[in-house]
Amino acid sequence: MEHALSPATLSELRRPRPYPAVSVLTPTHRREPENTQDRVRLRNVVAEAKKQLDADPAVTRERRADVADQLDRALAEVDLAHTEDGLVIYAAPGEHQVWSLARAVPERVVFSDTFLTRNLVSAQAAERPFWVLSVSADRVTLWNGGADRVAEAADSGFPLTRSRENFDAERQERIGDLPSTFRDEGTRHFLRDADTAVGRLLREDPRPLYVTGEQAALSALDELGTVTRDAVHIAHGGLSHGTPDAVWQAVRPLLDAEVRRDTAAVARELDSARGHKTFAAGVDELWQSSRDGRVRLLAVEENYRVTVRDDGDHLVPAVSGDLDARDDIVDEIVEQCLETGAEVRFVPDGTLRDADGIAGVLRY
Asked: How much is the pTM?
């Protein structure tokens, strides 16, 4: 299952495809007892997609069989033991993908000539993705970080490893010989290669970068590095051979502090906007402003959800399941704001209590 949404991946998902490009969305749960019905619910929504496929007169028999097979393959790849808060299946002629999201999605099936991406985009923005590079003299490991986890990014050209005759990095750490280890030309060349590799990655998928390692390793990167020199350094050794949980515990205090700083900064911007008459709040006002490209900053509480319908002039409250109900209007607004160059910040629940969970600063 996929987790990391890079700009290149998003562009690929959005390209036109032969009809039908099927998007299947369903909420999932991380824990019991809520997750006991996830398997049944998933099978039912895939069955509904197949039913719509069978009934669609615009789909040929050959293409119908192809897409149905892709849905079956995607279903077989789902690992419900490791799902998060939402699941998205994409299926089109000759291809399929499965995405696990750390953000809830409404249950729905969409047929089009492109995949539905708004929920992926919103989940990515909410996760505040980051990279962690763990450095030692013999191994450099890259970790993919999100809202509440890290996982090894094993498909990105990492880890980088090196071996050398009579080279024992762990022994040298024990006997205190790390400074000479990181002055060794072979080690310095190894670190330059790591810096170059992560530089390429950041050009393709820019995110905040944290670098962990012994102080001697971090000092070497201060001398040799480019992107790694400018990253946030955490003096914590052993994580290049460590576990995801150990890495998470090392970076979590910095992430929590960053959330507090960001939340305070957003609150200040919203207060300033009130004084300058550029403040907006509520889904109706922000939906229209986002479509007009007027939103400069959008702030959304992390778990804010609302269901609406469009009465022609305004968005009005609705009940999920109602005709024309829009369950993911918040994700629509997030995607539209990002498309028009706005900054999107997710803040802790309760931060925007006086703005009904969603607020913005307008450009004019």
From this structure: 0.78
Q: For the chain, what is the radius of gyration of the CA atoms?
A: 23
With residue 212 as reference, give the H or E element that holds it: strand 209-213
pLDDT, tens digit, 9 for 90 and up, residues 30-59 = 888 878 899 999 999 999 999 999 999 999
SS3 assignment, position 152: strand
**b/e string for 170-199 if b means 16 or more Cβ within 10 A?**
eebbeeeebeebbeeeebbebbbebbebbe
Residue ranges of the chain with per-residue pLDDT less than 70: 3, 164-180
Containing 265, the helix (H) or strand (E) segment is: helix 244-275
**Which of 112, 119, 59, 122 has the alpha carbon at shortest distance from 87?**
119
| List of residues 6+ apart from 203 with CB closer than 8 A | none
DSSP summary character for residue 76:
H
Q: Are strands 295-301 and 343-347 parallel, antiparallel or unpaired?
A: parallel
